[in-house]
Amino acid sequence: MIQRFNNSTEYIQHKNLQSMQKNPLIRLFEVILIKRECYINDLWELVGHETVSSRDNTRDKLDRAIEWILKRLVALNVVAFGEHMGMQILPDSLKIIRMPKIIIGILKSSSEKRTILVYGNLDVEEALLEDGWVTDPFVMTEL
C-alpha cells in the first residue's frame, strides 16, 4: 500500500519517526539527503567569498567568510568565536598585517562522549588562469 502525505511536513515527520529506530549513521545520511539542497546552497555561497589570504585587498572578504561560518556554527548551538593568532608579512608588498582569525568552536553534549577535532581552512592561495584554472575559482562549477 502506498502511503500518501498531505504536505512535506507530514512526510518529514513520518521519516523522522522511521529513522529514530535506525542506526545513527543511517539517520545522518537521511538528514543529509533531506537537506542536500540547503547544504549545496551554503557551499555555493561560501565558495563565492574571495578568501585569498595573501592579498591585503581581499582580507575583508576573508573576514566576511569567517563571520559567515561563525554565524552558522552559533545557529547550530556551537559555542564559537574567532581569534587572531598574530601577524603576517604579505609576500608581494612586504606589508605586515594581522593574520586571519581562526575559528574555535565547542559543541558539548556529554562528558562520556569522545572529543572530535575538526580542522579545515578557508583561506586559499591565489588561483590564476596561467596556473591551470579553467574556471573562476570563486564560482562553484560542476565539470
Write the layout of secondary structure elements.
Layout: H1 8-20, H2 24-34, H3 36-47, H4 59-75, E1 79-83, E2 87-89, E3 96-98, E4 102-106
Antiparallel strand pairs: 1-4, 2-3
Mean pLDDT: 84
Q: Biggest sheet, strands in spatial order?
A: 1-4
Structural class: alpha+beta
Rough outline: extended
How far apart are the first and last residues' alpha carbons, in Å? 41 Å
Protein name: M20 dipeptidase
InterPro entries: Cyt/Met_Dipeptidase
Keywords: Hydrolase, Metal-binding, Protease
GO molecular function: metal ion binding; peptidase activity
Describe, in short, the structure shown:
One of its GO terms (biological process) is proteolysis. The protein is of the alpha+beta class and 143 residues long.
What does this structure look like?
With 143 residues, the chain is of the alpha+beta class. The protein starts with 7 loop residues before the first helix and ends in a 37-residue tail after the last strand. It is extended. The mean pLDDT is 84. Strand 2 (87-89) and strand 3 form a beta hairpin. The longest helix has 17 residues, at 59-75. The protein has 2 domains: 1-34, no CATH class; 49-131, no CATH class. 37% of the residues lie in helices and 11% in strands. The strands form 2 sheets. The chain has a two-stranded antiparallel ribbon.
Descriptive key words:
2 domains, two-stranded antiparallel ribbon, 4 helices, 4 strands, extended
